[in-house]
């Protein structure tokens, strides 16, 4: 196992300056910020009033809170079942049906849900936003978190109460009341969609939206509150699954041969490449202000490839794409669990349930990307619940 | 001169309890097509709306055959020229099997009067001026355009749109706001009688500005007037068109949300 850093500068993990994230701020920026909003003429809704007006640019102050435009921000859509723990409610739904489920939710409206697997990730996103706002007060290049759930709006008040209880800065949401959220994901220019429902995630991937299914690990190890750490598997996550196909069809030797022969051919991109790119763009904003050593975003590649051989192609591909990854860990087939346990990412993306489960057993928050050839052999439902 | 004719093919509704929707013939039929399309006019932009209204009625009656809280549709002509095509409208209605219970023939001068006289709860038209005039007199008006033609016909979608930034002088009149509230609570009662999932009637809330607390307030306010919302979207300043184009509402009840973004 070789640990390689693509950065010229060696960064010691854990030596990140502790941030003051004030619990009552709820994402409010200091002082009053002006909200720049650009409005277009709305042609589409049937109007109760006649006479549309031509669009004009308006600057508005909205209680000092700054809402970025979806296409400028890095939009993360999370479902209610991964942001919070809703197992009890799920059971009510499965056993007693939708009417009883909604009644239960309304009855418990003032009881906040407890944090789910995506909760630490979202908190870390907010920490990054705070740092970004300090450096670039007018910029819309921030993380924008949208709650996208196909839950019924009857659950809305409980969800909002919960968001307030935990002091999360989530001001945008879509409760689709049962219809597919995919259209809304596109409308929000979603960069990453996290859900408990593998079907929805597959749909999103098919539409070209980075997506992953999240699971609640049995134990939750502590993760950093000041530095966002995102770990990726290589094949079928950042890269396409072409090499995995060779491995599956012809075995390890053929895989090595293929990689050697094609060392200088770039790998095709995988579903999470765009998200890594988005993270890289935000990282560069910190570098531009001399904060490379102190960057609150850190990315990791955790791959079964080996550094001396098949890993080279992965590195060359990343370099050609202009993507920097902070730490690349080539495990040469060794189990990923222990390494991930050391890294403590807020989220780890892998296309193989075997690895996701292994990581979760050791307390890592892992997300499954149901993409590529590995899915065809993985028919059984995970026992970890949805 | 206003005249009202009952459609003998359709069972008349209990006007004390029904929600009366008047649709103009121009909105319902394409009566000005060049070619002769046979025995009937083709459906216009209000066609899916009518089908959706019918579907709600069907479901309500399935649950309770004696149900009186139903949609009552009146086909209305609003000018003299349209009056002359009256027989064409009546036969087209029959041809398409539309549940229009009454035909109302009036002119530009007196159509608003007939709206008021016949206790019309919602007036549906493609004419801006007509909608404006009706609104001024406190009749809830719905202005349709070509996008309405692509609204679903299996589900009546009602959108409550909350815009906290209201331009002065552009909000609804107090009487039409009252009409909107009456309409909302009638719909709310209808919704309660229908199933939660896959209902033929769907309420959506969209808050354009402000964050989750404003949305929460809106959810609670609607709940207090008997409207339980099925879908909710809190935009917090994001551009509305992409979301609204997915929602495809038939009825948009708003606080100054209609028309352009502001």
From TrEMBL, chain A:
GO cellular component terms, A-Z: cytosol
A UniProt-annotated Pfam family: 5-nucleotidase
Cross-referenced InterPro entries: 5-nucleotidase
Residue ranges of the region described as Disordered: 17-56
GO molecular function: 5'-nucleotidase activity; magnesium ion binding; nucleotide binding
Top-level taxon: Eukaryota
Biological process per Gene Ontology, one example term: adenosine metabolic process
Compositional bias segments (type: Polar residues): 21-30
Protein name: 5'-nucleotidase, cytosolic IAa
Source organism of the structure: Austrofundulus limnaeus
Record gene name: nt5c1aa
UniProtKB/TrEMBL annotation, chain B:
Single annotated GO MF: 5'-nucleotidase activity
One Pfam family per UniProt: 5-nucleotidase
Biological processes, Gene Ontology terms: adenosine metabolic process; nucleotide metabolic process
A cellular-component GO term for this protein: cytosol
Descriptive protein name: Cytosolic 5'-nucleotidase 1A
Source species of the chain: Austrofundulus limnaeus (Annual killifish)
């Amino acid at each position: 196992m070789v640990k390689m850093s693509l950065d010229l500068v060696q960064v010691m993990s854990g030596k990140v300056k502790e941030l003051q994230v004030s619990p009552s701020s709820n994402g409010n920026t200091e002082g009053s910020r002006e909200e720049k909003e650009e409005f277009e003429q709305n042609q589409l809704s049937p109007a109760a009033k006649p006479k549309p007006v031509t669009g004009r640019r308006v600057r508005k102050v909205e209680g000092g809170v700054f809402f970025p435009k979806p296409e400028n921000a890095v939009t993360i859509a999370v479902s209610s079942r991964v942001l919070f723990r809703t197992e009890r409610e799920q059971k009510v739904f499965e056993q007693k049906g939708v009417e009883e489920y909604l009644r239960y939710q309304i009855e418990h409206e003032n009881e906040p849900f407890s944090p789910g697997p995506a909760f630490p990730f979202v908190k870390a996103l907010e920490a990054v936003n705070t740092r970004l706002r300090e450096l670039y007060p007018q910029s819309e290049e921030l993380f924008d978190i949208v709650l996208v759930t196909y839950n019924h709006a009857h659950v809305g008040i409980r969800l909002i109460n919960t968001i307030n209880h935990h002091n999360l800065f989530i001001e945008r949401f879509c409760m689709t009341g049962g219809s597919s959220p995919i259209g809304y994901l596109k409308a929000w220019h979603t960069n990453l969609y996290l859900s408990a429902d593998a079907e929805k995630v597959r749909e999103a991937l098919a539409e070209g939206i980075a997506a992953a299914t999240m699971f609640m690990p049995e134990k939750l190890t502590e993760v950093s509150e000041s530095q966002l750490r995102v770990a990726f598997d290589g094949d079928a996550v950042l890269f396409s699954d072409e090499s995995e196909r060779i491995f599956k069809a012809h075995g390890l030797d053929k895989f090595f041969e293929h990689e050697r022969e094609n060392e200088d051919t770039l790998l095709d991109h995988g579903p999470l490449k765009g998200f890594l790119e988005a993270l890289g763009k935000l990282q560069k904003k910190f570098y531009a202000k001399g904060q490379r050593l102190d960057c609150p975003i850190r990315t990791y590649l955790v791959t079964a490839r080996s550094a001396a051989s098949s890993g080279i192609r992965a590195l060359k591909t990343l370099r050609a794409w202009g993507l920097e990854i902070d730490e690349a860990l080539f495990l040469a087939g060794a189990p990923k669990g222990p390494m991930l346990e050391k890294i403590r990412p807020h989220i780890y993306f892998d296309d193989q349930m075997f690895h996701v489960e292994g990581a979760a057993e050791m307390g890592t928050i892992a997300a499954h990307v149901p993409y590529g050839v590995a899915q065809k052999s993985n028919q059984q439902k995970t026992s970890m619940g949805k | 001169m206003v005249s009202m004719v009952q459609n003998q093919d359709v069972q008349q509704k209990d006007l004390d309890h029904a929600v009366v929707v008047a649709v103009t013939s121009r909105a319902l039929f394409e009566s000005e097509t060049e070619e002769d399309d046979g025995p009937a006019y083709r459906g216009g932009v209000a066609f899916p709306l009518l089908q959706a209204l019918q579907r709600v009625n069907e479901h309500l009656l399935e649950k309770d055959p004696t149900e009186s809280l139903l949609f009552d549709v009146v086909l209305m002509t609003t000018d003299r020229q349209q009056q002359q095509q009256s027989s064409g409208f009546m036969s087209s209605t029959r041809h398409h099997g539309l549940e229009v219970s009454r035909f109302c023939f009036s002119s530009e001068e007196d159509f608003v009067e007939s709206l008021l006289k016949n206790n019309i709860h919602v007036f549906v038209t493609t004419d801006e001026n007509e909608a404006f005039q009706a609104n001024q007199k406190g009749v809830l008006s719905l202005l349709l355009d070509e996008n309405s033609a692509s609204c679903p016909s299996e589900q009546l979608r009602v959108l409550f749109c909350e815009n906290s930034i209201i331009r002065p002088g552009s909000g609804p009149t107090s009487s039409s706001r009252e009409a909107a509230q009456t309409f909302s609570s009638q719909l709310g009662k209808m919704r309660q009688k229908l199933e939660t999932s896959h209902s033929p009637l769907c309420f959506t809330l969209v808050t354009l500005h402000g964050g989750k607390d404003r949305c929460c307030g809106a959810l609670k306010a609607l709940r207090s007037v008997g409207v339980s919302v099925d879908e909710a979207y809190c935009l917090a300043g994001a551009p509305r068109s992409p979301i609204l184009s997915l929602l495809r509402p038939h009825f948009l009840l708003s606080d100054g949300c209609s028309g352009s973004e502001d």
